[in-house]
Specification:
single chain; about 425 residues; alpha/beta; Molybdenum Cofactor Biosythetic Enzyme, Chain A; Molybdopterin biosynthesis moea protein, domain 2; Molybdopterin biosynthesis moeA protein, domain 3; six-stranded mixed sheet; 7 helices; 28 strands; about 30% strand; elongated; binds ligand LQZAQKY5; binds molybdate ion
């Protein structure tokens, strides 16, 4: 028998109570894209580190232009990567390339497009300024204009996305401290399920949940191994202990409702997994069972209907995975539900949370619009293909009018 169901809020709280940091590892930056940073990254130099020439052309003293000089002797040519030219006479200039360090004493760069060059009879080159720069410092990216040496650039807890990778590389963070990836075992159960390469008999279907869960786990930054066990208590008793001991979390699908072959809640408890709840006032996904083993894995035993498995993963497992990768005391940012505007009225009378598949698009004025999908219930896995997320309709309401703003859990980028 299912005990009385708890609310989604309470289930969320009980799942969150099992979150603990899983540890830190040092990784070469080249392998760290997508990882959660476990150290602060600070500027090791000013940004930019020197007065950086921003246009190909000629560097000169702005004062000379103010004094009326227009033609300049090219005293030297300097490329990016070369030490700055020294000793340029006050009335001369340096032909210079983007990325070069501005020579001491010079302060302004005129681009080639605004110069006219000539070579005199002695072979020396001169350039005449055709268009005056608006101010001293034109076309120079000043040292420390963007960030100062020592400034905090990327705080611990940030995901290393491409922008963070660029900044980490430029400060020389060749090795970074990042979260260890959570290790997940995803397990499909059920005798009706055959391998995906098999031709199912009329009464059989192919195993799809474990591969779906594995892909979703990878998307959330976890390592995930996939297993399948039949609905056989002896097999489950034999196989599950190694998973409970060897993984941070075990995510099972199927075998948790009232059926005669729904053994998992009992077996998990026999194997020392303490039940935290069984049954959540939500549709779909009501028979969700959750437990934890002291010093071992957290167990999400998700209802087997594919849409139930899918939504429970995104609603409970994914936030757990993300929070487990945060450094101690740092909340996960940037993930979780976002507000969306309902575009068609919905009635839902049961006093439970309703997770409603929606397609998502932006209105011309930039609001995220959620349109209910015509889905066939928790077995209709094809409805996931045309959906971008699911709305969380709170249990205390029955009528959801057009225009109401509700949280949506997105499962596509
Ligand atoms: N008497 C009751 N029956 C059911 C209840 C209930 O409260 N009382 N709840 C229903 C709800 S809601 C759901 S959801 C399902 C969940 O049941 P289980 O978690 O025990 O899942 P199964 O019975 O094993 O499977 C349900 C369904 O999903 C298919 N499935 C399962 N695993 C996979 C997989 N790996 N790949 C693809 N498809 C899978 C399975 O074949 C079934 O069709 O229980 C209701 N019953
Ligand atoms: O709760 Mo079940 O997951 O509705 O189909």
């Amino acid at each position: 028998m299912l005990p009385p169901m708890i609310s989604v809020a309470e289930a969320t709280r009980l799942v969150a109570a099992t979150i603990r940091p899983l540890g830190t590892e040092l990784l070469s930056l080249s392998l760290a894209a997508g990882r959660i940073l476990h150290e602060d990254l600070r500027a090791d130099r000013d940004f930019p580190p020197f007065n950086r020439v921003a246009m190909d052309g000629m560097a000169l003293r702005y004062d000379a232009l103010v004094a009326g000089q227009r033609e300049f002797l090219i005293a030297a040519t300097q490329f990016a990567g070369q030490p700055p030219v020294t000793g340029t006479p006050a009335t001369a200039a340096v032909e210079i390339m983007t990325g070069a360090m501005l020579p001491a004493g010079l302060d302004t760069v005129i681009r080639y497009e605004d110069l006219l060059f000539r070579t005199d009879e002695t072979g020396q080159r001169h350039a005449t300024v055709q268009a005056l720069p608006p101010r001293a410092g034109h076309n120079v990216h000043r040292q420390a204009a963007d960030r100062q040496c020592g400034e905090l650039l990327v705080p611990a807890g940030t995901r290393l996305e491409p922008a963070e990778m660029a900044v980490a590389a430029t400060i020389g963070a060749a090795t970074v401290a990042v979260a260890r990836r959570p290790r997940l075992a995803v397990v499909g159960t059920g005798d009706e399920l055959v391998p995906i390469s098999a031709q199912p008999a009329a009464h059989q279907i192919r195993r799809s949940n474990a591969l779906m869960l594995q892909a979703a786990a990878w998307q959330a930054g976890a390592e995930a191994d996939s297993f399948h066990f039949d609905d056989d208590p002896a097999v489950l008793h034999q196989e599950l202990p190694a998973l409970l001991a060897g993984y941070d979390a075990v995510v099972l699908s199927g075998g948790v409702s009232m059926g005669k072959a729904d053994f998992l809640p009992e077996i998990l408890q026999e194997l020392g997994v303490e039940q935290r709840f069984h049954g959540v006032a939500q549709r779909p996904g009501k028979p969700f069972w959750f437990g934890a083993r002291a010093g071992g894995a957290v167990v999400f035993a998700l209802p087997g209907n594919p849409v139930s498995t899918f939504m429970n993963f995104y609603r409970y497992v994914q936030p757990w995975l993300q929070a487990s990768q945060q450094p101690a005391g740092v909340a996960a940012t940037g993930r979780g539900p976002v507000p969306a505007v309902l575009t068609a009225p919905i009635e839902f009378r049961p006093a439970m949370t309703h997770f409603l598949l929606v397609s998502l698009e932006y209105s011309p004025d930039g609001r995220l619009l959620a349109t209910p999908e015509r889905a066939g219930g928790s077995g209709d896995m094809a409805s996931l293909l045309t959906s971008g997320g699911f709305l969380e309709l709170p249990p205390e309401m029955e009528h959801f009018p057009v225009g109401i703003v509700l949280p949506v859990w997105r499962f596509r980028e």
